[in-house]
Amino acid sequence: MAVPTSSSVDLSAALVLGPATVADWLVILPVAWCFAVGALLVMLRRALNLHPIIAIAGLAGLVLIDGLLLGHVATAGPVTMVMGRWLPPFGIAFTVDLTGALFALVAAIVALAGGIFSLADINDSGRRYGFYPFLMLLMAGVSGAFLTGDVFNLYVWFEVLLISSFGLLVLGSEPEQIDGTVKYGFLNLVATTLFLVATGYLYAVFGTLNMADIARKAQGLRGSAPLMTLTALYVLAFGMKAAAFPVNFWLPASYHTPRVVVSALFAGLLTKVGIYALIRVMVMLFPVEREELSFVMALAGALTMIVGVIGALAQTDFRRILGYLVVSGIGSMLAGIAIGGPGGIGGAIFYALHSMLVMTGLYFAAGIAARLGGGSSIATLSGLYRKNVGFAALTLMLCFAVSGLPPFSGFWPKVMLVKAALDIGAWWLAAVLLLAGFCTLIATGRLFLLAYWRDEAGPVVDAVRLPSTLLAPLAALSLLTLGIGLYPEPLLATIQSAAAGLAEPSAYLNSVFPAGGLQ
Amino acid sequence: MKSVIFRTVAPFLTSLMMLFSIFVLLRGHNEPGGGFIGGLIAVSALAIYGIAHGVETVRRAIYFHPMAIAGAGLFAATVAGLISIIARVPFMTGLWIYPSLFGVEIPLSTVMLFDTGVYLVVVGAISSVALSLEERGGE
Asked: CA torsion sign, A75 to A81 to A85 to A86?
């Protein structure tokens, strides 16, 4: 068994010897917290009526922890904690900068909204099959992906969230859900395998998996190592995860089959994890290669936008339309990554955060609409406006937000992206961005016109009251969108310093390797 | 299964393998072994018992639902990582205590708690799969 450490060994060469403060612990706490709550829920598998209470309290706790973490990172700069005290690059480091903290906080808010919405959407059989434990483990994976500072660890978090998402997708076990799960699962496994292959390759080239270490060593290896191949592999793997053209087909094929709240969470969280990973790898680790690939990325982004909106215009199913709108939004973020610079990267981050809130809200709206109108096809849905005016108003806000109209949150990232595109002379990309926004407006306008404004055939029905557990999360997300749109200054400033921190990661590197550290 | 010899031997074999799985779990810190492989041995023991005496008997014998066991293991592993917050060291740092029991010094650590968690997760998850498969096979 363990031998008590003899004093002649110089531990400072291998271990972090300074004390870890509670503020440092905020880095790992979101993940550990989700695991602890999720494990508790699995243990209490018989007490189904306790599940929602524990899970919602757990998600509220997660929002609090992520909020504190963002506050801490905003004042103290990037924070690192290494697991088990082992010094990086050998120990697994969790390093949180503003980008990671922002994504984690918004993800937690979306998950909390989903948790509340699920009260009315997930029945006893869904609870028995473990909706809430899966939700907590999904959040553990998502938070881990946003907070880790190690490429292989990022892969592990992708696996965690992928396995949890399989569990969530098959809830209900109807044939079409299993069909959707198979499509989703197959393509995601291919993407994960590519990610793993790329990571193995990366390790062979760099001899390290720590992101800060890679960023530091990339400069010296650029002449001799095939970094371009590596970056291209990562672009393909993360592009698949994010549903970028031409590997986007799995998303519309699978997002309309599961429970509404599951679709909402997936639309809000999963593709954005792919975008986040893409930003992290392309901007922070391989900026020179991003420059080289920028035209390909811009083209992929433009095509993703176009394919997305055309799909949205062609569909008649509420949830399928939303699936295509998710894809179209991914195109805008890709365009931002391709443009680069503070405007492009900041725009991509802003767009991702906005899209998390808005797409989740729109899927909530689709769920409520199906409940009010008895279906999700906009050919048969009608008269929702008469049935509940407040609900119609909230949906309209989200429709405007997703199209990028002021005064909602979609406006500012669109402005940033268009301006950044024009600044580098990519007028065609700016035109596609605006065209995609315009077509999104037509698609959502068509949706609103048919499902909400069109009068129902037959006698006029009275207004229908909706349970507050359905309306409150939708209202919260819509108002958050409006709030960001009206008063974007604080968020914009944070995003700009987040983008600057990615482009010039010296603070990130210093947090992992204080004062140069070991070379 | 009908064989009398197998049905008679199975309980002894199962208890022996259970003991061995705990031995493998505990020696795993410094020597080959550990929670994962120990857990697999324990699941094989349960599977043998299930083949001999039926799945219902196994479910009664382990008392808790397999998934609840897995949940407890995950919880134990998370707690093992979180204990280090008290010692002001990073997550998952191994902490040791050496209490003396009847004059014998027994080293206990958070590492062992984590490994026990892994053991329980493996036992719970794999036996859940194995038992459902055996149930279907018997029909």
From this structure: negative
